[in-house]
Design brief:
Blueprint (H helix, E strand, L loop, with lengths): L1 E5 L4 H10 L5 E5 L16 H16 L3 E10 L20 H13 L7 E11 L5 E13 L15 E3 L11 H7 L1 H16 L7
Parallel strand pairs: 1-2, 1-3
Antiparallel strand pairs: 3-4, 4-5, 5-6
Length: about 200
């Protein structure tokens, strides 16, 4: 069975990715196994740019096929912010709670603000030579609530209620989130690609 490097040190994201890709025919490793590998600056102008540059960087650095993603929350009343800067919305060293607090504060400044929003994710895979093998995208539409709810998930999950549900991503059971989320939708397409790619890679 081939091993795919998951380009993240976020344990919540690792669990989510492994769960969705579980039947792809691949095994998985994460950056936790490569403490000396640095994290590249996310200098791209789009989610796809950032996902691709990270996948390439990690694949070349480790000599493994690598998967990386970039995602963001786009709030309609904030002209699409925080968008590609979602992870750095409140500053480089800010916590998830800091970012959520800033988002709530910014929305509070807008009279009669609608709270429509969407999560968007792009997943890229690179081979060890830096060639991009696949890029998949997923979108989940929803709304932002006035205060956080739930203890699951990570990032902006406690503030986001997907369309058709009354619970936030942080309140929904993991198996539900892993079916409807932006990252899930991108990863489901990625899983189909990996299942077909399986025979192209030598056994590791």
């Amino acid at each position: 069975m081939q091993t795919l490097l998951l380009g993240t040190r976020n344990p919540g994201k690792v669990r989510e990715i492994e769960s969705i890709l579980a039947d792809s025919g691949w095994s998985f490793s994460s950056l936790q196994s490569f403490p000396d590998v640095e994290t590249p600056a996310e200098s791209g102008a789009t989610y796809a740019d950032n996902a691709i540059l990270k996948a390439r960087f990690y694949a070349v650095a480790t000599g493994m096929c690598a998967l990386a993603d970039d995602s963001g929350l786009e709030v309609e009343a904030l002209a699409g912010a925080p968008g590609v800067y979602s992870a750095r919305y409140a500053g480089e060293n800010a916590s998830n709670a800091d970012r959520r607090a800033l988002l709530i504060s910014e929305l509070a400044k807008i009279p009669n603000a609608n709270r429509r929003a969407r999560f968007l994710a792009v997943v890229a895979i690179s081979d060890p030579k830096g060639s991009v093998l696949n890029v998949s995208e997923g979108i989940c539409e929803g709304t932002i609530i006035a205060s956080p709810r739930g203890t699951g998930g990570f990032g902006y999950d406690p503030l986001f209620v997907p369309n058709g549900f009354t619970q936030t991503f942080a309140e929904l059971p993991e198996h539900v989130k892993n079916r409807i989320s932006h990252r899930a939708r991108a990863l489901i397409a990625t899983r189909e690609f990996l299942s077909q790619l399986d025979h192209l890679q030598p056994d590791s």
